[in-house]
Specification:
Largest sheet: 7 strands, antiparallel
Helix content: 25-40%
Order of helices and strands: EHEHEHHEEEEH
Shape: globular
Radius of gyration: 17 Å
Length: 216
């Protein structure tokens, strides 16, 4: 098989190969039908971790592949079908009470409980599909706004999370790219949402450009 090259996004470093705790965390919260491949953190966060500090994951990325398709060579037609399927059923797939979202949340709870040696409650309150923002023959990106409830150590909080999801076809494989931007609070959506949306849109497009160029 051909090697797929994923360059680090500008201002970020790949974290799962540097920090075992980050790899364990990202694997724990990955959807059970996927294999987590890479995860990137801002350079400043990586510096903090190297100095023994703690980070709060305001911005990060994940790269994953569907386990069932990891060893399968895909065609342009497969990419077209993947996009068509998401356009048709993506909203239903992302419903908080739907089987996929429920499975992902319960799997993440179990993974986090193993890592933290205590129960963690996770619920997806709402997912909004904000629409497509980058459509190309080999890449398809949508923006999502999620509301997560986290119950840990007796403390409950609601976290708004802006996330881009990109399906990208590289060298006969389809990978999933996620860029995450945590809004500081539900109340802060009024002031933080628009600049966050602009930042994630620009960031995701530029990263896709880098990845496609690196695999020509």
């Amino acid at each position: 098989d051909k090697v797929v090259v994923i360059p680090d996004p500008e201002g970020f470093e790949e974290g799962t190969t540097q920090f075992p705790s980050i790899k364990a965390l990202f694997e724990a919260i990955e959807a059970p039908m996927n294999d987590m491949l890479l995860g990137h953190l801002p350079v400043s966060d990586c510096t903090t971790l190297r100095n023994g500090g703690v980070i709060v994951f305001t911005r990060y990325t994940k790269v994953a592949v569907l386990k069932a398709a990891r060893e399968i060579a895909v065609s342009d037609a497969d990419m077209t079908d993947t996009v068509a399927e998401f356009r048709k059923n993506g909203v239903k797939m992302l419903e908080p009470d739907g089987p996929l979202a429920t499975e992902v949340m319960r799997n993440a709870e179990k993974g986090l409980a193993r890592l933290q040696s205590q129960e963690v409650g996770l619920d997806l309150n709402e997912t909004q599909n904000l629409g497509e923002f980058d459509v190309r023959p080999n890449a398809y990106s949508v923006m999502l706004l999620m509301s997560l409830s986290i119950d840990s150590q007796g403390t409950k909080k609601t976290v708004p999370l802006l996330a881009s999801l990109t399906f990208i076809k590289i060298r006969q494989r389809i990978l999933y790219l996620n860029v995450y931007y945590k809004i500081s609070s539900p109340e802060a959506l009024k002031t933080e949402f628009k600049p966050a949306m602009a930042e994630v849109t620009q960031f995701a497009k530029k990263w896709v450009d880098q990845i496609l160029a690196a695999n020509q």
